[in-house]
Amino acid sequence: MAMVDLSKVLVKQAVVLDQEPFESKEEMFDFMASKFVEAGIVSDKQKYIESLEYRETLGPTYMGNYIGLPHGKCDEVLTPGIGFCRCKEPFTYKSCGEEGEVKYVFILAIAGTQTGDEYMRVLATLAGLLAHEDFLELLDKANSYEEILLAIKNYNI
After folding, report:
1. What pLDDT does residue 118 have?
2. What is the DSSP letter of 45?
3. Measured CA angle at 102 (ends 157, 113), to 5 deg
């Protein structure tokens, strides 16, 4: 499976560092969906949130290790993109019967026209990176969108 250059799909306006912890996953969905709308990635915030919530019914997006990896696929996604949010403190993330503390959220906006194979490659690439403790350390220390891009570009899996 070919790896994907994640730096090409990381949306600058949807990278938020040192966010106050969210009350819930739903609050985070709302917050990050707004970022995608502001960035012109998503045309309808509510439809995108519905697609995130639908995906949650299929299986957990809590990855362990303080990571949440929610993703929504719908026609209102104009351009595929990834958002990233790092919280100052972990918050409780409930997903499809599982729950855990989450500090790092990578959220995917998947266009309705994208094939399953295309976005599975993105998810696989991301999951591969997130399996490495030292990559998580880079995420934890990054002070800007540019530093996160650099971490993604320079990290060879």
Report:
1. 84
2. H
3. 60
pLDDT in tens, 45-89: 999 999 999 999 999 999 999 999 999 999 999 999 999 999 999
What is the β-pairing status of strands 62-64 and 67-68? antiparallel
Contacts of 78 (CB under 8 A, 6+ apart): 40, 41, 42, 43, 111
| Long-range contacts, stretch 149-154, CB < 8 angstroms, 24+ apart | 149/7, 149/10, 152/6, 152/7, 152/10, 153/5, 153/7
Residues 10-23 have pLDDT tens digits of 999 999 999 999 99
On whether the pTM is more than 0.85, the answer is yes
Residue type, 151: A
Label the pairing between strands 10-19 and 62-64.
unpaired
User: Among 20, 119, 26, 140, which Cα is nearest to 77's?
Assistant: 119
In this structure, which amino acid lies at residue 31? F
Site of tokens 């949010």? 85
pLDDT confidence tier of residue 103, bands split at 50, 70 and 90: very high
**Other C-beta atoms lying within 10 Å of the C-beta of residue 10:** 18
DSSP run (H or E) holding 74: strand 71-74
